[in-house]
Amino acid sequence: MGYDWIFSTDLTANINYLGSCKEWASSTKAELVAIITALIVCPSQSTVTIYTDSLSCINTFNNLKSPKLSTRRFQKINNCALWNTLKHIINEFKLQVTLIKVKAHSGDSLNDAADILAKSGCSSKEYMNFNFHHTKTQTCHLQFNGTTIIDRNIRKTSKRMINFQYFERHLAHQNLQIIKDYTLNNIIDWEYSQLWFKYNSFSQLGMATVMVINRL
């Protein structure tokens, strides 16, 4: 995912930055990384106003100040390690940060320029990596394969990985070889098939199975 930011206080200075991020890619993460990299270069004790079209980022940022947000609830937020990094930067630099919503694709010249830069950032091979071990608010992280920090709801992510392992063993049965072939060739979309099985109106599983295979 590409991201970028533009310094709008003095446009004649032509200060901007773009890059790309990987692992747990999403538009919200790209916006969050853009905000973090913008705050990194701000002088200490600055008052910073950031204009973004990501309502998700704004809502999460505002919720960080809520007394109802316990440590347990915070760990369920996607990109919680990055949000911890954001809090760390704000506290260390003593920044006053405000996020303001800008409507996307509304003809705002700076927002449109930022979108163009973000698309250019998608092709960048220099990925932004963060050393999360220095954040004071979180002393440990769960890693996958020893390299990738699981920056998602830990319980849901762990359950999903275990389910994938069970599913892989299930498909290894010789009677399900054709289903396995369809899966490996991306003929079956199991995510949507799961939703169909869960919400279909048929009471008999056999009939539902026939309908899914026919649709595929």
From TrEMBL:
Pfam families cross-referenced by the UniProt entry: RNase_H (PF00075)
GO molecular function, one term: nucleic acid binding
InterPro entries per the UniProt record, alphabetical: RNaseH-like_sf, RNaseH_domain, RNaseH_sf
UniProt-listed PROSITE patterns: RNASE_H_1
Taxonomy, superkingdom: Eukaryota
RNase H type-1 domain location: 1-123
Protein name: RNase H type-1 domain-containing protein
Organism: Rhizophagus irregularis
